[in-house]
Amino acid sequence: MPNQIPKQNIKFSWLFKMAWRDSRKNRSRLLLFISSIVLGIAALVAVYSFKDNLQRDIDSQAKELTGADLVLDSRKGVSKAMQKMLDTLGDDRSQEKTFASMIYFQKGGGSRLVQMKALQGKYPYYGIIETIPAKAADGFQNDQYALVDQTLMLQFGAKVGDSVKVGELNFKILGTLIKAPGQTGIASSVAPTVYIPLKYLDKTNLIKTGSRINNKFYYRYNDPSGVDEWVKKNEPKLEKEGFDADTVESRKEQTGRSFKDVNRFLALSGFIALLLGCVGVGSAIHVYIQEKLSAIATLRCLGLKSRHAFLIYLVQIFFIGLIAALLGSILGTAIQFLLPLVLKDFLPVEITMQVSWPAVGQGILLGLIISILFALPSLLAVRKISPLNAIRISFEKAGGKRDPLTWLVYILMAAFVTGFTHLQMKTWVQTLAFTLSIGIAFILLIVLSKLLMFLVKKLLPKSSSYLWRQGFANLYRPNNQTLMLTVSIGLSTAFICTLFFVQGILMNRVTLSSGSNQPNMVMFDIQNTQKEGLDSLTKAFKLPLMNQVPVITMRIEEINGKKANADTNNRRAYRNEIRATYQDSLTAAEKIVEGKWIGRIKSGETIYISLDQRYAQQINVGLNDKILFNVQGMMIPTVVGSFREVNWSKMQTNFRVVFPAGVLEEAPQFHVLMTRVSTSEMSAKFQGEVVQKFPNVSVIDLDLVLKLLDELLSKIGFVIQFMAGFSMVTGWIVLISAVLTSKNQRIKESILLRTMGASRKQILAINAIEYFFLGAFAAGAGLILALGGSWALAKFTFDANFVPPFVPTLLLFGSVMLIVVVTGVLSTRSILNQPPLKILRTEG
Amino acid sequence: MESILNIRNVSKIYQSAGKELTVLNNINFSIDAGSTVAITGPSGSGKTTLLGLCAGLDRASNGTVELNGIALEKLNEDERAAVRNQYVGFIFQNFQLLPTLTALENVMVPLELRGAKNIKAHAMDLLDKVGLADRSHHYPVQLSGGEQQRVSLARAFSNAPAILFADEPTGNLDAETSEKVIKLLFDLNKDAGTTLVIVTHDLELAARTSRTIKVKGGIILSDEKASYA
Hints:
heterodimer; A: alpha+beta; six-stranded mixed β-barrel; B: alpha/beta; Rossmann fold; 7 helices; 10 strands
């Protein structure tokens, strides 16, 4: 008699064959399950490909970005010693002075603040200043010519050959400026550029005391290999003289760095879409495996080992995941061609799009990992399916303990989410905040769904009609879908709504107030001698003098006796020029939050200054700390007397550093004047008059700035919406597939009820009640999470107020609920359209 | 005659709502190789549980189950699966055909699990014996209940089992179809010389076996051999 345990010889190929056979009638459903990760993968592949292409283009076009091998620039004046050094550098050199100034179009009479560039030399050495006609860029330095940005030309209807007045000189427009080296589209529309020859700058009479001029020196080297080393060696000297150095290499890094943030945001949006997909995969595979219970039990009866059963379904998920990842990668590669269109105004280089194979590889790998990882908890359960299920559906399950491997998978999932988030976020604090929030949201939804089941069971009135009782009882009876749907719908609703709210917060944050009592025109660089004249001119136009403040330029020399070189941790404090004011009382936008405000002092008294509290934090300064200011050569010792909270969004001049009256009255200074002009005709007329009479005074038309800002924001908004759109669409797909996959739980019941004589209307009503309540509950839970999350993001990340928009919130809630109910009821309806016997046989 | 199944002092106790529920209590019997046995009893008597233990689908709480000389309680789940694949055949009340496999593939599965070669012809031969050779590429959903059970019979015999367990094999069939399926079952069994254990509450069916074990309340009420045996 045989008493040996027989050996099985299952070939690996048979497992593949069986996986293929088993998937036969489920492939379209399996594809629906993993469709939720397709968009997430697509978003990430698009972002990664874009990043690769951008980096490649930055590398290849870096020379054109800088236009020279070395660029030195300073906002300070140039010392004699420095000038001597500057004159000896490079094999060819050019100089440029950049500053803000008004220009006046002689023909049309319009004027506008522009970025003036006075250039001398053959810059750019790499790339070109793009103009129409093309020759204009080379010829404008030959005479009193100007190159005027195309947005300005369009705005004022100017043509090549017209004249513009810059300061006290007229320049003939030789060409329309299309693009300068390293300039982005958005930069030129915010601050349009006008080139003039440097040799005429003095004659314009625009350079006055306090004028903010950026001196740039461009160098070309026959052999540029030593430039970076030279910069490194001379850095201390350059820093001392207030010079920044820019080389092709440093520009490469800098441009790459500034786009890292953009890429990080884009990748994170894609990742959120992918996370939603993970929820979709997890819940869908759970339902799928439940439906396979009987088939797996039968196979186990016939002698299939538990690990082989597990492998059969793992193979299925692997291939379906691979298909999803491939689809996602193909879609992502196609979408990457759209990203440059979306971002074109922000890009400093021409993007040449190519298929990025590393990005495609990453996408496929990520898709596979996610499909398998998030399917694993359900797949591992396959190992535990008892063959007894084949002979009886309900039997006592062995023990209630969870499989230790399942815990390991949960740990792997958490590690994956944390690791991937860290790759995008880079800081552990943000990473942990993000992953913990997701974890907490997940746990909260589970707790809420359990609570719902408990409450419905306890509180459901026995006297209510059958339809209501049946519909509600579906929420807690065996095979209920409450937990799965609450988690998946709740989480996707939370993501969708959070994205929507955050978008609103970002938009509100940058929208400036422009009420009818607010000034809409700012004039600055007003010299002491021009102050009265400009006041009179303003009054003559019957315009209000709304805000008049003096501005003094200074630097911090010492903090508590420490100079910049001794205070290495606080370099930022000494580096930048500060524009301060003096006043004897606080403005409406200021509030003292700490210390005591002193408005006026007498000669010889301690000078107590007031700092914006955030600025004080940035430069690590506390109350009673001593700061020595260098006010254009004169050292003024001060003590920090108070901190102010400043409402920066208020349309008026605000300052980080405020001196009391009685100290700076005699210091070199310029003034700022604000007024309100009611019509654009009046604005143009007044600006024209100001430019004619006070050529050095710059006028900012805030209405125009607001309009430009609005355009800029709508472009940024579009980028945000474009990426958030991925997550939103994925959220909807997960939501719909969650409802669709859950329908199988209700098919048999619906058919049995139908067989027992329930009308179509009654069955639809029972399902509608269940889905309505589930939808409302899950959407509500998700919405509450989103409100909480958005509030936290507004408070701690964006430092903004969050007021939930009532109508959109209600609409979001309503639409989630509607989708759940409609999808649920429609899926039942398709069953009711067929004879009960057919369905029973299919399902049996 | 040599016994193929030995059940010694077998009990099965479930935990239900914190209480112990004894479904089978100290069961003892042996089944001779090649014999036909019916296990009968009313619903809830424990007969399906007993079948589960005999076939190695579940573990007894106490006692020993020896199948073809192998003590099942000492084996883990995968080892028991290997024993089932090698020595056991199953027929279920609700057929339990794999819905995504054709009739032919369903019959082939036990042999494939064993790693056997050239099995298609053998499986076709069995389908032919149950009169479904022309339906070999049909899926279960495309077959009637009787046809599904005939495929199930072919599958059960495909691995030439030493013992075949049938759980209410006619429970889901009408009288006429039942008769055909039962005849086929006994004919195939006779040809193969397999031990047949049928769990049923159909006394007519039970009467066709050589021995009937009656179970009630978790104990054996009677163990009778047929007069002709």
